[in-house]
Amino acid sequence: MVRRQQAADRAVRPKLRSPGHPKYQRHVEAAFWTEIAKGLLPEEAAVVVGVAPAVATRWYRQCGGMRPFDSKPPSGRYLSFSEREEIALLRAQGKGVREIARDVGRHPGTISRELRRNAATRSGKLDYRASVAQWKADMAARRPKTAKLVAKPGLHAYVQERLSGQIATSGGTPITGPMTGSWTGRNKPHRKDRAWVQAWSPEQIANRIRLDSRMMNPCASVTRRSTRPSTSRAAGR
Q1: Where in the numbering of this chain does the Transposase IS30-like HTH domain appear (predicted)?
Q2: Which of 34, 41, 42, 172 would disulfide-bridge 56, Cβ 3.0–4.6 Å?
Q3: Of 163, 62, 222, 21, which Cα lies nearest the Cα of 230?
């Protein structure tokens, strides 16, 4: 009877997208860039922080060798991944909301909302897991708003010139970006990053804007969104 009900639930429920491999936490990426600042190579820093060399190389390549602006750990206002792991362990032990709140040091309302909003539902019931809860929290933190690159045409042109490798002189003469060899990458989903190898990375553009103009000072995440479909959707609005 239980199997029949589960099959019926799968028949009416739309197919859920798998979150894939859990994303590395911010403190791991922050530790990686700390080792890079000490002068280590990406492969050497990967060994220190405990990530795969391919992942470390991709972090370094995507950011153009510069520390990203959003690599800082979240403030104490939000639950961290370690706190979510502790909540999952206490929940598996059968403890209640108030008892978990006392052990974690959070308000019972915070624990109650966390267990209700960020629980895994693929099994047909509320099953709290730290990795799924962190993934849901990261997805909920993406608040849609009008992109700066849509509201400011001059900033949009500035970013596009450097992403494409076409930079103009003060007289308007275009300067071709650096010519590099073909690069296939070590992972097919990340082959699109080769465009940033031939031009400027979002972090490089965001840092250069500070020197070129004080009126245009976006963060690197805004610059990175210029190559994503979300910007075109914002333009349609």
Answers
A1: 75-118
A2: 42
A3: 222
What are the φ and ψ backbone dihedral angles of 85, each rounded to 5 degrees?
-65, -40
pLDDT for 201 equals 75
Residue 174 gets which letter from DSSP? Answer: E
- Regarding whether 207 and 161 lie in a shared domain, the answer is yes
CA torsion sign for 79, 136, 231, 69 is: positive
Tell me: the pLDDT tens digits for 168-179?
666 777 665 545
Among the listed residues 174, 177, 235, 172, the one whose alpha carbon sits nearest the alpha carbon of residue 205: 177
Whether 159 and 115 map to the same domain: the answer is no
The reply to whether 8 falls in a domain is: yes
What is the DSSP-derived secondary structure letter of residue 185?
A: -
Q: Is 55 helix (H, G, I), strand (E, B) or coil?
A: helix
- How many distinct structural domains can be found in the chain? 3
For residues 194 and 212, is the Cβ–Cβ distance under 8 A?
A: no
Give the pairing type, strands 174-176 and 166-168: antiparallel
